[in-house]
UniProtKB/TrEMBL annotation:
Gene encoding the protein: ispE
Protein name: 4-diphosphocytidyl-2-C-methyl-D-erythritol kinase
Catalyzed reaction equations: 4-CDP-2-C-methyl-D-erythritol + ATP = 4-CDP-2-C-methyl-D-erythritol 2-phosphate + ADP + H(+)
Keyword Transferase: yes
GO-annotated molecular function: 4-(cytidine 5'-diphospho)-2-C-methyl-D-erythritol kinase activity; ATP binding
Natural source organism: Cellulomonas fimi (strain ATCC 484 / DSM 20113 / JCM 1341 / CCUG 24087 / LMG 16345 / NBRC 15513 / NCIMB 8980 / NCTC 7547 / NRS-133)
Length: 314
């Protein structure tokens, strides 16, 4: 479908916020012929946000601020810029955009910061260019950009299948409180999957079975943080620990400080600890800081909404 968008107004600016995520459960199957792994995962969007400010420009340009801004690519390697181009191609618009990313989600931390930027860029450019596309069209473009991008658009809590991009909303009650131990050294997602494949080179990996997450889904429906803590699961955790053995320290610190559950987030290296309350999340964060096991410590609540416009000015 090719639409004729209204030309963007000069000096028009759109601000969009998109959340980071954690995987409450990540079950990984064997690699397919292309090397991709079939997943069964439960995502939760948490209140650590990326902000993308899109403004009219003749070219496609990108600037970045926030912690670790210096390690974020500003060329075509940046997923947000790729998202903007993909949307422009889809609607046949002959305009550029300046994207400014205000990053807060850890870079290469297993919390899908790049995917959040891509989702935010899609929503921002969609508003800036007045494309007239529907939400489903944006989800389709999102899935082509990366398997975590559709979830960054929708947010809340959802079960992901396929490569993680096929989403079913999950029923949840109440709010869950988290503390995160962030490492600036980062972990490459492909490297963690390679380590996973090596650990399981004996062919012992079964197709992931969503039935294994029934206790987790019940805990979410009941708003039972204690049961959720006991059900957290990550098949990539051992691979992440293999590449970064130092991660055992924040895991142990969170357990000692009474976390209801603790897990490496996605492909790591961020460690997510589930707290009893907002107050207890601050206690867990203080334990991470005092023991010196993190470069940065965050607290957050989930679930929260996906990428949303926060302001637009003409
Ligand atoms: P995921 O959890 O989806 O595997 P992640 O949170 O571990 O992702 P990201 O922060 O999204 O990792 O980025 C991983 C790599 O992608 C970075 O090291 C960087 O080189 C590149 N990258 C591309 N676009 C971005 C972006 N907008 N922000 C941060 N990194 C980006």
């Amino acid at each position: 479908m090719t639409l004729t968008p209204v030309a963007p107004l000069p000096d028009h600016e759109v601000r969009v916020r998109a959340p980071g995520k954690i995987n409450l459960s990540l079950r990984v199957g064997p690699p397919d012929a292309d090397g991709y792994h079939v997943l069964s995962t439960v995502f939760q969007a948490v209140s650590v946000y990326e902000e993308v400010i899109a403004s009219s420009s003749e070219r496609f340009e990108l600037t970045v601020s926030g912690p670790q801004a210096e390690v974020v690519p500003t060329d075509e390697g940046n997923l947000a810029l790729r998202a903007a181009r993909a949307l422009a191609d889809r609607v046949g618009i002959d305009a550029g955009v300046h994207l400014h990313l205000v990053k807060d989600v850890p870079v290469a931390g297993g919390m899908a910061g790049g995917s959040a930027d891509a989702a935010a860029a899609l929503v921002a450019c969609d508003a800036l260019w007045r494309t007239g596309l529907g939400r489903e069209d944006l989800v389709e473009i999102a899935a082509e950009l990366g398997s975590d991008v559709p979830f960054s658009l929708t947010g809340h809590t959802a079960v992901g299948s396929g490569r993680g991009h096929l989403l079913t909303p999950a029923l949840t009650r109440g709010e869950f409180h988290w503390a995160f131990a962030v490492q600036h050294r980062g972990l490459s997602t492909p490297a963690v999957y390679r380590a996973f494949d090596e650990l399981h080179s004996g062919g012992d990996v079964a197709e992931p079975d969503p039935e294994d997450d029934v206790p987790l889904m019940q805990a979410l429906r009941a708003g039972d943080a204690r049961a959720l803590g006991a059900a957290l699961h990550n098949d990539l955790q051992m691979a992440a620990l293999e590449l970064d053995p130092g991660l055992a320290e924040p895991l142990a610190v969170a357990e000692d400080a009474g976390a209801l559950g603790v897990v490496v987030s996605g492909s790591g290296p961020t460690v997510a600890a589930l707290a009893r309350s907002r107050q207890h999340a601050l206690v867990l964060a203080a334990a991470f800081t005092a023991s010196g096991v993190a470069d940065r410590v965050l607290t957050a609540a989930g679930p929260v909404a996906g990428a949303r416009v926060v302001s637009a000015s003409d």
